[in-house]
């Protein structure tokens, strides 16, 4: 009875918190909220008492919560207690562990990268090292999901790893003292040319603005006057961090974003305080994976004619969620407001009851590629029309449509299969096992020389094709010929990442990135609409 009472209490408390949090006075058929709670309690109690099989009360309550939130909008969601720590960690910007990125390839745990400034890097652990033992217990055959359980732990605690390093006969033991490890949201910040810098931001977490400023300051010290900011596939995050980033690029007194909810306490307005980088020429890369906080930054820059938006129309998420934690360590995110760009555009796309169809629609748009400065691409749209600071038409209710629409190159089915089967990773492991030591000795820190000299030989491609076939992939010769430049570029990028980290990867991959390459040519247009000389 005690257990049953406890389950019932939790269930009622959860539902009560949900309904009271929204302060609904009347619900179904005009009945008051307590009548509905009584109805729910009766159903749950009778099901637990009389159902033909034993039931899981917690599962039923969670299903009820999911069903309730599902009836509201696509972005109000329930987060089980088991998932909350990982989600929280991603946006807090750090965890405690040994500081490596890893993968499990052919049952072997391999270091992909060491986190800069982390304990593994300090001890000299390298990309390509294979972790064979953890605390004297074999790690061969370890499941990917089990790795964090073994390597992460409280700051100051020890973990012993035994490593096999390609080119060395003996195994190496490392005693690693765990530490706080940053989770970076700025993937890379590097100079593309003498005056063009590139910064890629993967999400907006608690450290994003600080990382962004660090990257900008580093590049400005190297001569940056023009910036390509890559927000492709950035799904958003903290609105405040998006505001701070936009603020850094705008003069004082400019509205960046505002929110409106049913309740007045959720109405907010964000005005720029005046940043230190208002003189930078700016291009922002976006695509259909660019959402939420990323659309706030992109929309503000477009509305003020501050820079040029290049790529494909963004996802179209203009709803603000607030997260509420529940007594059992689970949580839910509830949409409390809508956000609007400076001109008053609501970025949120229309949505119905089918969440899959809603998400799919963002990736199925038909767009005409080319210049779209005056937004004639949306000219026959029924969406509401707004004007930028410079008088250009822009449209609300469907994401941010770029000023230059450039579609990403599409991979063939063959390359999709190659990626899905992990051929690139496995090929890279074998190649670096054999040649990694020599490459490090030859190129040391000279990434530019590597990019200039290194090529994928016909022998390498033959080995790559053989590995693909072994993985069960039928080599369609027509598709293989079409995608060979991409395949070769990615092979080189994998090698560069092992030697120089993310800067190596991005420096190589951007060579075959048609959206990026087009952006490099558009700074005169960006400077024209921003009135920069």
Would you give an account of this structure?
With 533 residues, this protein is of the alpha+beta class. The chain has 4 domains: 2-71, no CATH class; 94-182, PDZ domain (Pdz3 Domain, Roll), CATH 2.30.42; 186-319 and 340-408, 2-enoyl-CoA Hydratase, Chain A, domain 1, CATH 3.90.226.10; 413-516, no CATH class. Helix content is 40%, strand content 20%. The chain has helices at 2-22, 33-50, 57-70, 84-92, 119-123, 147-151, 208-221, 239-249, 293-303, 355-363, 413-420, 423-443, 447-453, 458-470, 477-509, 514-520, 523-530, and strands at residues 77-79, 94-97, 100-105, 108-114, 130-134, 137-138, 158-164, 172-177, 179-182, 186-191, 196-201, 226-230, 255-260, 268-271, 281-286, 308-311, 319-325, 331-340, 370-371, 385-387, 393-395, 404-405. The strands form 5 sheets. Strands 10-11-12-15-16-22-19 form a 7-stranded mixed beta sheet, sandwiched between helices. Strands 3, 4, 5, 6, 7 and 8 form a 6-stranded antiparallel beta sheet that branches. Strands 1, 13, 14, 17 and 18 form a 5-stranded antiparallel beta sheet that branches. Strand 11 (196-201), helix 7 and strand 12 (226-230) form a beta-alpha-beta unit. Helix 1 packs antiparallel against helix 2, helix 1 runs parallel beside helix 3 (57-70) and helix 12 crosses helix 15 (477-509). The longest helix has 33 residues, at 477-509. The radius of gyration is 26 Å and the shape is globular.
